[in-house]
TrEMBL record:
UniProt protein name: UDP-glucose 6-dehydrogenase
EC number(s) stated in the UniProt entry for this protein: 1.1.1.22
PANTHER family the record matches: UDP-GLUCOSE 6-DEHYDROGENASE TUAD
Family stated for the protein in its record: Belongs to the UDP-glucose/GDP-mannose dehydrogenase family.
Gene3D superfamilies: Cytochrome c1, transmembrane anchor, C-terminal (1.20.5.100), NAD(P)-binding Rossmann-like Domain (3.40.50.720)
Pfam family, one: UDPG_MGDP_dh_N
Keywords assigned: NAD, Oxidoreductase
Entry superkingdom: Bacteria
Length: 459
């Protein structure tokens, strides 16, 4: 099939390369000429495992090409994907200016029947407007159909997610458009949900909002565990074996971030308000997420003091999650700003996101370390802010040797508590108070349990 993908961000670039790898001929379009040159040279504008190899392979095999000309890009395409950004505007709604602009340009350059598909995350009714715009700008001379085909890929594993999707959602009022899209995806052998435009648009938002709800839910359970003396990771495990609940997205931490969840939850809430509906649950989800970082910082100030002047804190993690260099809406950066605001000297490290973070934190007089041990050197406390697997591999004894202090605040519950405690650290996490974990590990020390319980109830 001949395809055109407009926009070379996460969704567009991954989409274009995977579509071409499936044997389709794909032209990727972006107005940013420098970006296009970088991509052609195999220098990806984003860090995404497997992406560079996939792009170069398909360019070499002549299935994938890039251009800055939308007219050229859509000329031979049977299906045109709109994958441009829809950032959050000041009111919490999605800024759709890029979508409208692309729709106009498609209309002006339409040279034959095509299916115009929106992959960008867009609010209810957007595809209907896209249809109107294309109709207006093409002067009704050419036939076309519009479809919604939202993407569910996660940054950091987007290539794999797209290759092995759980489901494909496609919405359109045209049976012909749905048939064409089915042909593109049918080899995946995963369920296809074919529906109307508006349902497809809501499926995307509802999916992200539901996952965000799971995270805020477990974060509240974690706060309860901290008070009641239970271990949230065991609670999540116990819940997760129930297939109706599932284990995914039940990891407590300092809150969700990234370019999707915060924006999409706010946009769905805004859409509900526009429909004169107060989506109270979503309000709670956002509020819990906003507060989560403050609970974490409070734990730090309770131990180190409210004035952090003279304290050196090592912060591991800058990206909004592991396996990405993306720092958009990163809670790690929020925590770093709060700690710096309280006077702490910070030594920070991230395996991929340091350069991006410098752009945001640059003037805060922060030391950017070359690895975890370098960050920990001379520190009074160590904070884990992003769930990078490699932080787990840090040797507790070696950390203890280079640090001045002996406290670890694990905002992602990823470190090995036993190893840290054996090395002489005091370990704090999110929803796993010390004595509860000892119990769940099978250490039945009554003294620990009673002391822990007394400490908790005296709070
Ligand atoms: C999310 C969705 O998971 C994708 O399905 C969707 O396609 C994408 O948004 C999008 O709309 O484009 P992504 O933003 O890449 O993907 O990141 P996630 O892996 O979902 O993580 C989001 C945030 O939640 C991160 O800050 C992560 O640290 C946090 N998180 C995740 C938790 O705090 N706990 C968990 O159990 C899982």
């Amino acid at each position: 099939m001949k395809l055109c993908v407009i926009g070379t961000g996460y969704v567009g670039l991954v989409g274009a390369s995977v579509f071409s790898d499936w044997g389709n001929t794909v032209v990727g379009v972006d107005i940013d000429a420098k970006k296009i040159e970088r991509i052609k040279a195999g220098d990806m504008p984003i860090y995404e495992p497997g992406l560079s190899e996939l792009v170069l392979k398909n360019i070499k095999e002549k299935r994938l090409s890039f251009t800055t000309s939308l007219k050229e890009g859509i000329a031979d395409a049977e299906v045109v994907f709109i994958c441009v950004g829809t950032p959050q505007d000041d009111t919490g709604a999605a800024d759709l200016s890029a979508v409208w602009q692309v729709a106009e340009e498609i209309g002006r350059n339409l040279n034959g029947y095509k299916v115009i598909v929106t992959k960008s995350t867009v609010p209810i009714g957007t595809n209907e407007r896209v249809k109107e715009i294309i109709k207006e700008t093409s002067n009704g001379k050419v036939t076309f159909d519009v479809a919604s085909n939202p993407e569910f890929l996660r940054e950091g594993s987007s290539v794999e997610d797209m290759m092995k999707t759980d489901r494909t959602v496609m919405g359109s009022d045209s049976p012909k458009a749905l048939e064409i899209l089915k042909e593109l995806y049918t080899h995946l052998n995963s369920p296809i949900v074919a529906c109307d435009l508006r349902s497809a648009e809501i499926i995307k938002y509802a999916s992200n909002a539901f996952l965000a709800t799971k995270i805020s839910f477990i974060n509240e359970i974690a706060l309860l565990c901290d008070r009641a003396g239970a271990d949230v990771s065991v609670v999540a495990e116990g819940m997760g074996y129930d297939k109706r609940i599932g284990k995914a997205f039940l990891k407590a931490g300092i809150g969700y971030g990234g370019s999707c969840f915060p924006k999409d939850v706010a946009a769905l809430f805004r859409t509900s308000t526009d429909q004169a509906y107060d989506f109270r649950l979503l309000r709670g989800v956002m509020e819990v997420n906003e507060k989560q970082k403050y609970h974490f910082v409070k734990k730090i100030t309770e131990k180190l003091g409210k004035n952090l002047n003279g304290k050196v804190i090592a912060c591991l993690g800058l990206a909004f999650k592991d396996n990405t260099d993306d720092i958009r809406e990163s809670v790690a950066l929020e925590v770093i700003k709060l700690l710096r605001g309280l006077g702490a000297q910070l030594r920070v490290f991230d395996p991929q996101a340091t350069e991006n973070a410098k752009g945001v934190l640059g003037d805060l007089d922060i030391y950017y370390a070359k690895d975890g041990y370098d960050a920990a050197t001379g520190a009074d406390a160590l904070c884990i802010l992003t769930e990078w697997g490699e932080f787990r591999e840090l040797e507790a004894k070696k950390l203890k040797k280079v640090m001045r202090g002996d406290i670890v605040f694990d905002g992602r519950n990823i470190m090995n508590r036993d190893q840290l405690e054996v090395a002489g650290f005091t370990y704090f996490s999110v929803g796993r108070p010390a004595y509860a974990v000892r119990q769940s590990n099978g250490h039945k020390s009554l003294k620990n349990r009673v002391t822990g319980a007394l400490l908790n109830f005296s709070k």
